[in-house]
Amino acid sequence: MTTRHFFRILITLLAFAFAAPTFAQGNDPKPLFDQLADANFNDAEKLVGQIAATGDTRVVPALNAFAEGDLYFRKSDKAVFAAKAAASQLELIDPVTGESAGQVAKGAVTKIKVNNNLRRAIRAALGGLTLMSPDRGARLAAADAILRSPSAEALELVEAALAKESDRAVKARMQEARAVSLLSSDRSVEEKRAAIETIGKLGGRDALGILNSVSSSIDASLKPDLEAAIASIQNEQQLWDMAQNVWYGLSLGSVLLLAAIGLAITFGVMGIINMAHGEMVMLGAYSTFVVQQVIRENAPGLFDWSLAIALPVAFLVTGAVGLVIERGVIRFLYGRPLETLLATWGISLILQQGIRTIFGPTNQEVGNPSWMSGSFPLGGMTITWNRMWIVVFSLSIFVGLLLLMKRSAFGLQMRAVTQNRRMASSMGIRTPWVDAFTFALGSGIAGIAGVALSQIDNVSPNLGQSYIIDSFMVVVFGGVGNLWGTLVGALSLGILNKFLEPSVGAVLGKILVLVLIILFIQKRPRGLFALKGRAIEA
Amino acid sequence: MMSAFIFRALKSHILATVVVILAAAVLVPASNLLLPADHALHIPTYVMSLMGKYLCYALLALALDLVWGYCGILSLGHGAFFAFGGYAMGMYLMRQIGSRGVYGNPDLPDFMVFLNWKELPWFWYGFDFFPFAMLMVLFVPGLLAFVFGWFAFRSRVNGVYLSIITQAMTYALMLSFFRNDMGFGGNNGLTDYKEIVGFSVQAGGTRAVLFAMSALMLALCLLIASAIVNSKFGKVLVGVRDAESRVRFLGFRVENIKLFTFVVSAMFAGIAGALFVPQVGIINPGEFAPANSIEVVVWTAVGGRGTLIGPIIGAVLVNAGKSYFTGAFPELWLFALGGLFIAVTLFLPKGIVGTIQGGFSTRKAIKVASDAEKGRGDVTPIAQAAE
Known about the structure:
The complex is a heterodimer of chains A (538) and B (387).
Chain A: H1 3-19, H2 30-35, H3 41-53, H4 60-68, E1 71-74, E2 80-86, E3 89-93, E4 100-104, E5 109-111, H5 116-130, H6 136-148, H7 154-164, H8 168-183, H9 189-202, H10 204-214, H11 223-269, H12 277-298, H13 306-328, H14 337-359, E6 375-378, E7 381-384, H15 385-407, H16 409-419, H17 421-426, H18 431-453, H19 465-478, H20 483-504, H21 506-523
Antiparallel strand pairs in A: 1-2, 1-5, 2-3, 3-4, 6-7
Helix pairs in contact in A: 1-7, 3-5, 4-5, 5-6, 5-7, 6-8, 7-8, 8-9, 9-10, 9-11, 10-11, 11-15, 11-18, 11-19, 11-20, 12-13, 12-14, 12-18, 13-18, 15-16, 15-18, 16-18, 19-20, 20-21
Chain B: H1 2-9, H2 12-34, H3 45-71, H4 78-97, H5 110-114, H6 130-154, H7 160-178, E1 190-191, E2 195-196, E3 199-200, H8 204-230, H9 232-242, H10 244-249, H11 254-280, E4 282-283, H12 290-303, H13 309-328, H14 333-347, H15 351-358, H16 362-373, H17 382-386
InterPro entries (chain A): ABC_transp_permease, ABC_UrtB_bac, BCAA_transport_permease
Signal peptide (chain A): 1-24
Subcellular location (chain A): Cell membrane
């Protein structure tokens, strides 16, 4: 670095200290730009640094133009301008003020050449300059950029910006950026020690990467500090990994909950082994597909609302199918649970083949509305929006169903009929219709689950098959006839699965979970939350 | 004593069925081997193999009938025992390939060479030896049934719960056998067999013998099953099915009775699997699929559970129908099968044989169910009974 460079920095710093708002006006970057006309690549690189060091944010467009190869000098007086094409001529723009300096023929100017090294220097300089931007967001972004790719060159800029910064959040981020840049500079050991501490507190994979990258070049006396910082970050990282696993588990658990909650009604409350449950989920997913097709063709603007529209449609379609199944088949089979299993399996085959005949055997494309796509960071983990919404959605269905069961007249009748059919009947409850609507409700909920699952799974005629066994496991594990059991069962199986996965792999993890459930049933044949009673069967 | 035991097994309809099966065991191979190809009664080899397959399915359905029809255990995992028997036979057949595999390795089957394994895993030892392999056909399914049943029956897991965990069992096994690390050929299973006890598996003569063996084993197992259900033990068995608690209170060890029947049934299923594999030429993890096991339940239900000969008739009829439909109207097969499930449970709850034996009881069954729904009669819905 040249003495001149330091001199300018000193002036800048003084300007910061005493006249912060007007600091830059004392250094005119214009002559520096003009020197670019004669400079070779090395000189140009230094000049760019000096231009940036003026701290004058007005030069940002010109530096951008330079990186793009749009910086020219006039052959007549070697004055440097940014230029943009205007008809057959070039319009010259003052690099500092941004004002137009008239149009010239292309032959009257010469392009200032730029290579990759120079581009990198320009980008670094720009990063530093935006640190001074009046826009808070831009400053934050610039600090983040330095955090991600630190360099010793950025250090002075960061320090300069830091002195001026008043926003606390931005200041904290800049402190971190300073610490990161400082490690690769030639500052004193004490300063570096403090910097290591700051980075250690910062945490995250980036910080770990930075610390690891300097570990070979750093002063030996700093090694223990460095290692302590790395260890603390790694500890924190492990906690975040754990949290991420719990989240994945919750997300899988909520998928299981969605798939199983309809079954918790038809199987858990009514005692019908509904093997066609998976097909109800599938019908819900296909309803979503049909709704989206209709929207795509007739009102593309409503696409973001497609799921909201599909929910009642799916509920009504699958609820109606459920009603027909109950009135047409299942009502003749009450008291013969194992035979309902056969009949509903037959129904599931017919529904599958029906869908295959109508829509074909291939996967149908169901789109994600915009609010379901993308992800957001939370601490050290990344959470995708569709998973987030599915967790929220399945929990709200659960709460809704619980309220329906416990607080509504229909729920009361439903519980009365399942607990004592004859007594309920003599109290004037029309038990056949309660049966029919309970089954329709369970089927409708499965259909709603299908709407959500269509967002994360392939919509094919086999969709239901992949959920049926898991759903039964969840209901049996949680305890038949108990919605809370289904909730706890689904979430704990989901989390267990995701914790087994990293160590033994996905398939073996699933096998282990199945074996654990089989063993668990031996211990508690009525599941996690068994209904209490002393009656003996048969 | 022993003769009385055998005599009881030979009820007239069982005897008739055994005679029919034995006649088939002689006549079908005879027609295939002795009659010229253009003779009207000649049975082509592929038809004979197909019929041999049906007989294996019939044996599997018989095995299920023993536990479901007489002991009230609806196993949704009998396909697992069938597949274990099949894998035991498949392993023997793989060892017979020797160095004639694609890679020509004298010690290892092809898929192990492909996976870069250096030596034979311990559980493959002994399968070069036919009697050992046949012992395993009985032993492995029997052991699985014993361990599973020992836990399940002792903890009094029954009814729907038992059905669901047997389904979980076969599902878990299917996932395990799909893994290459298991050492059973993963996804592709075991195939490309060359010969069985020195005879080529492709040869017409071997096929005829395999058919005859299937028929003989079916007849033998039918006799054993008949002897069991018609003995005094069989009476207790039916007692367990109809009123488990009462039988327990009378002092019988219900879990042991169930366990014995379950293990015998699993061994039958293992034999069926072992005879199935050389006739179709492959065994893969798909045989463990829960849907297969449920299909077996349907054959049994169609024929009539608790009748022993019903499942045999059901298995043959449904599978013949399947062969016809999947050839002629592939689209319609699942509709037909699904419709059959529903129709049988609604209108023929006792199956074909049961209905013929007991007269048509459809209307009565529907009346009982609708009475129950209206709160009359003594049929209690399950949820009520479970409390």
